[in-house]
Recover the amino acids of this structure.
């Protein structure tokens, strides 16, 4: 005969979790390294190749992706239990597309010249796999605040890689930093009447003359260079942390 | 699986909500966005005469661009025969405000050649008069366009600005991003000594220093550079009837 023991169910009082506790910190910082969207998850490569020829558009793009990733995760998580299963991905796409349209309108309204420069890339955020990827992998199964932080974290992880690649490509491919922005720095090149470079390769004497035969690396201007650089970054990261090899 | 009706209800509510939000944003910001676009175009036009200005138009605040454009630029519209159009003509061509600055070259391109109209901007400054033409063409991936400023003699180029829709950054996009490209056009001529129209060619091989009718191209951006050359050749040609009339009038008046 089976013994039936009446057990008083233990009532565990859940502690109110801190707004920015260990879990949030992990969500925010992991994508900078161990779960980086580009180098580990291998997502969002397309825009990373296209936009990184210059640093300034890359920075604006990174900010836009952080915004879209964070808020789309937030909104998706808020309605995650109400989305009918048959239209799950369509709804996610609508959320992302709406947010990107808002970004586009905001740029047009407040900084039209930057909008003109980036108009193609902004639309591409909709197709950025990182955004959709995080919605499916995290936002659909987690609470809004955590989802928001996860979105932000992945956006920042993407942004960091973007900026690293862009700096390398612009410095070696064009000899400048932040070209096209108010804070343009001309680093290396042949100074003429129109542009003055810090390291003047056309100088007759002095530091610049050491670089007399220097030419910008035209390969850096092409998307293929971004692919090589990202490949090298993946290589460096996995050599540094062997546990990450074969993780994706 | 949810019932079909609940799916439809969800989708309808979501669509309505999204559409409402975007429509609200779009209408409330629409005016400012149009103004931003107009100032962007004016900045590009003034960029062609940057040598005549005390400051680089790219660095001027919006208000200054408006003020400068309003006070120093006379805008007229021309038809294919070189005749100056009235405000009513411009409105009849499809531009509600009747202002030449609203003329959309992309729209005009779709009309049959005989019906097209073009804007011309006459810039009056202490340093001299300048005629600014607007041209449009095709680059490698998508459209390109530009403003060419002619000096008082209607032959020498005073300056130029270019823009594009989707050329490759670092290659075709250099027509806009690299200030040395447009500056190559300064001092070049569109008519030779015999008065024959030559336009300005863009040479891939370079070596155009002594040649008043050509500029160096951009290495790696052959198609875009060819597009610029073609755009200049065809685009400036549209203005020839007017330019020739002006030149003839000058000769009569001495």
């Amino acid at each position: 005969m089976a013994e039936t023991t009446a057990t008083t169910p233990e009532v565990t009082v859940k502690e109110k979790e801190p707004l920015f506790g260990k879990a949030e910190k992990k969500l925010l910082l992991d994508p900078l390294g161990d779960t980086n969207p580009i180098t580990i998850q291998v997502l969002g490569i397309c825009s990373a190749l296209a936009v990184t020829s210059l640093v300034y558009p890359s920075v604006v793009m990174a900010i836009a992706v952080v915004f879209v990733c964070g808020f789309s995760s937030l909104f998706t998580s808020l309605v995650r239990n109400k989305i009918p299963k048959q239209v799950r991905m369509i709804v996610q796409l609508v959320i992302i597309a709406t947010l990107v349209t808002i970004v586009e309108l905001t740029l047009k309204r407040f900084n039209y010249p930057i909008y003109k420069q980036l108009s193609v890339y902004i639309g591409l955020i909709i197709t950025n796999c990182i955004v959709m990827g995080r919605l499916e992998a995290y936002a659909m199964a987690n609470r809004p605040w955590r989802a928001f932080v996860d979105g932000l974290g992945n956006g920042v992880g993407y942004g960091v890689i973007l900026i690293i690649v862009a700096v390398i490509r612009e410095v070696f491919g064009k000899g400048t930093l932040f070209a096209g922005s108010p804070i343009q720095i001309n680093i290396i090149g042949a100074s003429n009447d129109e542009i003055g470079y810090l390291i003047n390769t056309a100088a007759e004497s002095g530091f610049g003359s050491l670089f007399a035969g220097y030419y910008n690396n035209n390969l850096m201007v092409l998307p293929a260079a971004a692919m090589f650089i990202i490949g090298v970054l993946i290589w460096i990261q996995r050599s540094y942390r062997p546990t990450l090899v074969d993780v994706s | 699986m949810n019932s079909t009706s609940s799916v439809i209800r969800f989708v309808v509510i979501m669509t309505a909500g999204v559409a409402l939000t975007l429509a609200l944003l779009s209408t409330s910001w629409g005016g400012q966005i149009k103004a931003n676009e107009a100032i962007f175009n004016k900045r590009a036009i003034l960029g062609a005469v940057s040598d005549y200005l005390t400051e680089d138009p790219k660095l001027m605040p919006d208000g200054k661009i408006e003020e400068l454009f309003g006070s120093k630029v006379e805008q007229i519209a021309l038809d294919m025969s070189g005749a100056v159009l009235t405000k009513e003509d411009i409105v009849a061509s499809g531009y509600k405000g009747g202002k030449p600055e609203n003329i959309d070259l992309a729209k005009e391109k779709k009309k049959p050649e005989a019906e097209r109209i073009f804007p011309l901007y006459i810039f009056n400054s202490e340093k001299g008069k300048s005629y600014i033409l607007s041209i449009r063409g095709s680059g490698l991936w998508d459209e390109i366009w530009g403003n060419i400023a002619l000096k008082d003699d209607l032959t020498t180029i005073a300056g130029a600005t270019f823009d594009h829709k989707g050329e490759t950054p670092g290659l075709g996009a250099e027509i806009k991003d690299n200030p040395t490209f447009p500056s190559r056009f300064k001092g070049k001529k569109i008519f030779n000594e015999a008065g024959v129209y030559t336009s300005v060619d863009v040479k891939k091989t370079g070596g155009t220093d002594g040649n008043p009718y050509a500029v160096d191209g951009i290495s790696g951006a052959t198609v875009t550079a060819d597009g610029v050359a073609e755009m200049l050749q065809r685009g400036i040609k549209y203005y020839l009837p007017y330019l020739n009339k002006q030149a003839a009038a000058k000769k009569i008046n001495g």
